[in-house]
Amino acid sequence: EIGEDNNRMALVRKGLQPGEEVLLTPPLHAAVSLRTSEDLLDVEIPEREPEKNAANKEEPTTEGRRRRLTPEQMKKLQERMANMTDEEKEEFRQRRQRRPRNEQ
What we know:
This protein has helices at residues 28-35, 38-41, 50-58, 71-83, 86-98; strands at residues 2-5, 10-12. By secondary structure, it is mostly helical. The protein is elongated, with a radius of gyration of 32 Å.
């Protein structure tokens, strides 16, 4: 029977003779044998679907999560910018500067 402990030492109240060794943690071989049991080794790991991987590679990314604009999107943005007043352009620039870098 043990009493209080501090993860380094424990108070043994009874059931231990002088000179006997006490382990505060379970032996390592028990943990290793559990991980290498046949039940765990025979588990099949599903493969990723190839089309999902291919789709992710086709979308080039720059800083953080921002995706590059397609030529069509870039053209629309340029047209929008060309039609903005000077005040609207300045407001747009200010908003872009306030955003964290990884969201741009």
